[in-house]
Amino acid sequence: MGSVELESVKNSVRRMWADDVLPSLSTLVSIPALSPAFDPDWAETGHLDAAVEHVRAWFVERDLPGATVDVVRLPGRSPVLLLDVPATEGAQDKGTVLMYGHLDKQPPLGGWSEGLGPWTPVVRDGRLYGRGSADDGYAGYAAATALAAVREAGGSHARIVVLLETGEESGSPDLPAYLDHLSDRLGEVSLVVCLDSGGNDYERLWLTTSLRGLAQVHVTVRVLDTAQHSGMASGIVPSSFRVLRTLLDRLENSETGEIRLAECNVEIPANRVAEARETIEAVPGSILGTTPWHASTKPVVDDEVELLLNNTWRPSLSIIGASGMPDPAEAGNVLRTSTTLALSFRLPPTADSQAALDAITKALTTDVPYDATVELSGVEAADGWNAPEPAPWLTKALEHASDRIFGKPWGNVGLGGSIPFMGLLGEKYPEAQFVVTGALGPDSNAHVPDEWLHLDHAQRVTETVATVLDAHATS
């Protein structure tokens, strides 16, 4: 796409974001569309359906030539929204471009700043605040806007399918079934564009080159049928918390955070180590500078390259929840019956998540101290993803967009989080090219209070996607 057309794309994108996207996206923010894991009664509460209907109606209003808009529902599964747009003349043989995002959201959490709230969209200083603004409500809007901008500029695109799921924040448990169900309809996917990611600053385009997998389990250690006075039972009955602590030591080195299980570790590819060094050289301080450290807390290590590799290619364990323990203000001298911890493992991109989960399960349930009862629930595993090398046409398109839109070379970086859909797509479409990017930055506050979307960066990402669609069609 030449310079004149690129200017046209920019003008179209900016106009559509101001007139069409921002008002509708703001309304989407106000819908408390919690992911099914956080709203088991989602079918009754109706918020996910409301989010799907809101965006479906917006897609229909775009009136893209030949487009169909469908809500696909499989029994017992959260819905999927599809926008299907036929290829422009001459690009019918380029396969399908699958553009991905999600409409479900993380829980609201407390602690939002004054004047802000999870379901209250607020535009302030070029930012749209609210839950789901950056993760990932804008994605469907950006995809459709990029598509419309290409057409307005006289460019080309292959057949486009925009797929918005409603279970990503729950680990995308329904997507394998939907991929099988939609396989014939999708056809041969040659390009995947995912807008559920981001990078280390808002100054350049960032491509995500890897995503970690995950394994999660809720582990309960039970030692009594009824709670006992601690003065009468301690020293006789083992503490359920101590038993759990012993089991955790099998999984993690508590001094370093290293995961002990071989199944959770991989050898880091040399190109990803080099990439990490380049990322830190491009944006020094990006790992440490945006972390809201408390008081004198220090990072795990001082080397930012090692920190980035820790976050993207090494496994880690986070204790994300607990039950069985009363609030300290209400805690009596009682030896409790049980303790439950929610364990969340982030796994290297190329680790076998099921093998890792099996190893975790074995470590937690074999030779348990004092023969205490161990119960596992909430078990989940999903593989990560490691990007293929970009094709020459894609490299050229990204170089052009980075130069003209951002004025800086694009950056490559691994992401410490998970997008299970990418692993599924990488396995199903091994020949496809991937553009995993987005408007999230290191301080966008996804999943936590004060989530916000950098509006200018989101628009530049939209412009870039438009150029990639045209380049793909004409390659």
Automatic annotation (TrEMBL):
Keywords assigned: Hydrolase, Metal-binding, Protease
GO molecular function (one): peptidase activity
Domain Peptidase M20 dimerisation: 210-367
InterPro entries the UniProt entry points to: Cyt/Met_Dipeptidase, Peptidase_M20, Peptidase_M20_dimer
Gene Ontology process terms (BP): proteolysis
Coiled-coil residues: none
Pfam families named in the record: M20_dimer, Peptidase_M20
Signal peptide range in chain numbering: none
Protein name: Acetylornithine deacetylase/succinyldiaminopimelate desuccinylase-like deacylase
